[in-house]
Amino acid sequence: EWSPINYMNQRMFSVHITGSGNLWVGTAEGVNLCAEYNTPDSLREWKQFTYADGLTGNFVTAVKSFYDQTEGKEYVYAATWLAESSAENNGVSYTSDNGASWNKCLEGEKIYNFGFSGTDVYACGDNGLFKSSDKGNYWEKYVIRAWSDIKKDYVDVGKVYSFLYQNDIMFAGTGQGMAVSGDNGSTWYMIEAYEPSSDSSNDTYAYPNPFSPMKFDEVKIQFKLEENSQVTCEIYNFAMEKVRTVKSSEYYEAGESYIVWDGKDSYGRTAANGVYYYIIRYGDEKVWNKIIIFE
To answer: Which letter does DSSP use for residue 213 in this model?
Structure first.
């Protein structure tokens, strides 16, 4: 019976076909496996694997696999999140025998997706990018500080949502842009999309706007300098009381740049909902605009 209301494992979030032709489906209640998906509907057989079978949790947001030619085994990795039971946990669950047994790793980590380079496994999530060279027993975490030509500074990456290893280049999808590394993660640079601030009626703009500190982590304040300058950026509330000095007489080169604000005041407290003003001063010039905080 097809009834996603009554059967949580019919609420699907991810689909993956392995090299051997197995169809894996991540759902709200575990993983579904169909080994013969090219048969008519009436002949298809499915297996369901849940927390009771060894997953860290029943909410499965991603499924990916690779084939180990040396072992002659297919390894399937699932991002398994805590669903309803307090006994469940976020983490990664993987199998090399089509679900007959499951292994757990990265417990406590909320993982969004996977990538592979040979038998090296990459997992990306709320706390960054992880790599395992032994198929999941031991994991190392990358510290991603990516140089931004627009910010004219390094961007410290927290969450990583997607990952690809291709042609010896690492691509990490983040909330700040795409971080790229050609030396196995030793150095990174950031690829970012933006609209030139010169196209803005106020010569500066902030994005995302409205801004949610809990959802977006930081707001970017875009501006353009005609020449190298010392830049100061201050945040004020609606009553024009200073909330925070984000930058104070810091050197910026001419061209498009941005400054980030994490939505906190000078005491580290998250600013309340409302309208805020930012003022950017350089030389005898200043530009300003509004930021709306809305949770």
So the answer is: H
pLDDT in tens, 36-47: 878 887 788 899
Q: Which helix (H) or strand (E) holds 215?
A: helix 213-216
Highest mean pLDDT among 151-155, 181-185, 280-284: 181-185
CB 282 within 8 A of CB 228: no
Kindly report the length of the chain: 295
Q: How many CB atoms lie within 10 A of CB 235?
A: 22
> How far is the C-alpha of 292 from the C-alpha of 205, rounded, in Å?
12
Do residues 21 and 75 make contact, with C-beta atoms less than 8 angstroms apart? no
Token pair for residue 222? 């875009």
Give the separation between CA 57 and CA 80, rounded to whole angstroms. Answer: 5
Q: What is the pTM of this model?
A: 0.83
In angstroms, rounded to a whole number, what is the distance separating the alpha carbons of residues 51 and 104?
11
